[in-house]
Amino acid sequence: MINLPLLIVQQALNAEVEGGLFDFNATLPLMALQFLFLTLVLNILFYRPVSHILDERNEYIRNTLTTASAYLVQANELTQKYEQELAESRKNAQKIIKKSQQEAQQVVSINIKNAQLEAEKLVTEASLQLNIQKEQALKTLETQVDTLSEQIKLKLLGN
Predict the structure, then answer these.
(1) Residues 6 or more apart from 19 whose CB is under 8 A from it?
(2) Percent of the chain beyond pLDDT 90?
(3) Which residues cross the membrane (predicted)?
(4) pTM higher than 0.70
């Protein structure tokens, strides 16, 4: 049987001989140059266009927010203006309604006074007519009483 830990140690010794974990020959600077070259290529091909697109996007968002804020301020100003106009219109409408009610009340009171005067006039005319009829009735009764008293007097006195 082969001893496994012994085999691992033997392979590690062989690896050190062939080149260890860090081999300081020409591949290390070549790897560093390759890293720098790839960093430069990625910077040119990826980072600059992406950062340019992100900058444009940020500028677009900033401009849109500025425009939206300006529209919001304008909308708030218009809302306040229309609310003030609406309040003034309501006040004017209330004044007009109050004035109309007062005018209607005056018209009604004038009509009531005219109706009362007309009623008083009718009552007075009726009273005058009744007084005239009363006087006529009294005159008629007087004449009838006079004739009756003459007839009674003639019957009693004479015949």
Answers:
(1) 25
(2) 60
(3) 24-47
(4) no
Q: What CA–CA distance (Å, rounded) separates 36 from 155? A: 169
Q: Which is more confident, 116 or 158?
A: 116
| Six-digit token string for 41 | 């290529």
Rounded distance, CA 2 to CA 16, Å? 22
Q: Is the pLDDT of residue 20 over 60?
A: no
Paired tokens of 79: 């809302």
Of the two residues 61 and 32, the one the predictor is more confident about is: 61
Please tell me the total number of residues recorded for the chain in this structure. 159
Q: What are phi and psi of 22, to 5 degrees?
A: -115, 110
Residues whose CB is less than 8 angstroms from the CB of residue 25 and which lie 6 or more positions away in sequence, other chains included: 19
Burial (CB < 10 A; 0-12, 13-18, 19+), residue 44, is: exposed
Residues 6+ apart with CB under 8 A from 60: none
Rounded Cα distance, 23 and 7, in Å: 23
Residue 82 corresponds to which tokens in the numbers above? Answer: 């229309």
